[in-house]
Amino acid sequence: MPSGDKSTGGYLVLLNVFCMIAHLVAAAENNVIGNGGKLPWHLPNDLKYFKSLTWGGVVIMGRKTYESVNKPLPGRLNIVITTNLDWKAEGVVRCSSIDEAIQYARDEQFKEIFVIGGGEIFNQTIHLADTIYLTRIHAEIFGDAHYPAIDESLFFKIAQEDYQMDEKHAFPYSFETWKRKSA
Ligand SMILES: NC(=O)c1ccc[n+]([C@@H]2O[C@H](COP(=O)([O-])OP(=O)(O)OC[C@H]3O[C@@H](n4cnc5c(N)ncnc54)[C@H](OP(=O)(O)O)[C@@H]3O)[C@@H](O)[C@H]2O)c1
Asked: What pTM was computed for the model?
């Protein structure tokens, strides 16, 4: 941005302010989100929901989540966070910290930034999330990666759609949307 261009500078500041951060997560009743580097379930409708929300946008993930899929999600800007300066993958932006990843996404002028996991990244960014798109899987499932318990003094649920188990979905599940309460 050319120095002295105050109107453009102000516009960019406003874009930064209005850029929302969302968590997009599927979690069991006991907050398990993963096991052995993988998702412990297969819920095709949740994958479709994930795609519909993130398509054309930006997703930020930890290196272990990226490597569990091992290819960039098509149709989205993929940002992977790792401390390893030598790490690289085609079609992926590597960032060394959460702050760097969020700033990169903001600079690309996305209206909403989707943080998509895994447990380490969710735990370190929950205080930044404006919205949580939570697929709640109605079962207790064994796993080694967890989502933090949602603090209902900080977030409130604005929407919930319930689905029963069927031949393609081994568990009942709900799509929930949570918003941060204003200060
Ligand atoms: N159910 C869901 O919605 C969902 C979503 C995503 C993932 N998952 C599951 O979650 C599991 C993976 O989660 P995870 O907690 O093991 O790993 P993760 O959060 O995906 O990635 C952890 C890695 O991210 C990097 N990292 C973390 N914090 C950092 C920081 N502050 N600065 C720089 N780099 C940082 C480190 O990479 P380096 O070691 O390379 O430095 C760290 O090892 C898998 O089982 C996956 O399937 C579930």
From this structure: 0.93
